[in-house]
Amino acid sequence: MDTLPLPAAPPTRRISTSRQVYDLLRDRIISLDLVPGAQLSRSEIALFYGVSQTPVRDALQMLATEGLVLVYPQSRTEISRIDIGQARETQFLRMSLELEVVRALAATRPKATLDRMQQLVAEQESARDTDLGQFALLDRQFHRTMFEGAGIPNLWTLIQSRSGHIDRLRKLNLMDPGKAGAILAAHTQIVDHLRHGRIAALEDVVRRHLTGTLATVEAIRVAHSQFF
After folding, report:
1. Which of 218, 165, 132, 134 has the alpha carbon at shortest distance from 36?
2. What is the pTM of this model?
3. Measured by CB atoms within 10 angstroms of the end CB, which terminus of the chain is less buried, N or C?
4. What does the CA dihedral 180, 204, 30, 35 come to, rounded to 10 degrees?
5. What pLDDT, on the 0 to 100 scale, is given for residue 150?
C-alpha cells in the first residue's frame, strides 16, 4: 500500500501551517510525485511538521474541495484519479478568460509585461532539456504574468484553484517528445503577436495552445491508465 513519503523539509512559519501543508502537498500531487491512489497518513504528516493534526486535516480538506484527494472518514485518505470531465470544464473556463486577457493586452501592449513574458520564454528554453519541473513552473508563470498585466490576477488564482486535474494531464503530456518545443513555439508567437497587436493571429495561437493536451487525452489515458 502506497503511503506518503516524507517531504524534504518542514514548512516555515511565514504563513499558516495548514496553508503551507496544503501548498506542499498540492505541488507534489500536480507534479505526480504523489500519484493517484497513493494514501496519505495524517499522523505522519503531522509528526513530520511538528504540528497537531488539526492544520493537517484542514489542508487535506482544502485538497478534497478541489477534488485532488478523497477522504474516507475513519478509513483512509488517498490521492484522486485524474478526472477528465473536470479537466474539460477548467479548460473551458480558462479559454474563455485567457482570450479576453490577450485581447486586453493586445490593445495596450504594456512593455513591462511583454518584456517579462519574453524573459520567461528564454528561461523556459534553458530549462527544456534539463528540468521539466522548472519548465512547467515557468509555463504557469508565463500565463500568470498575462493575467497580472491585464490587471486581473485574482482570476488566475481562480483558475489555479480548479486546475489540479488538467495540470496533471499536462504533466503527463509534457513528457511526450516535442511537447515542450510546441509550448515554447506557442509562447514565442504569443509575445510576438502581442507586441504587434495581431489580435486574430493571437487568438488562433491561444486556442491551439490551450487545447493541445485535451486533444490528445485518449492517447494519454491509454499510455498512463493507472492514473485514471
Report:
1. 165
2. 0.85
3. N
4. -80
5. 97
For residues 43 and 41, give the distance between their C-alpha atoms in angstroms, rounded to a whole number.
5
Q: Cβ distance 45 to 56 under 8 Å?
A: yes
Residue pair 186/134 in contact (Cβ under 8 Å)? The answer is: no
Do residues 26 and 19 touch, judged by C-beta distance below 8 A? no
Look at the chain and count its residues.
228
Q: What digits encode the pLDDT tens for the residues 19-59?
A: 988 998 999 999 999 999 999 998 988 887 788 889 899 99
Please, how many CA atoms are within 13 Å of residue 30, restricted to the half-sphere of its CB?
Answer: 23
Q: Find how far residue 15's CA is from the centre of its chain.
A: 21
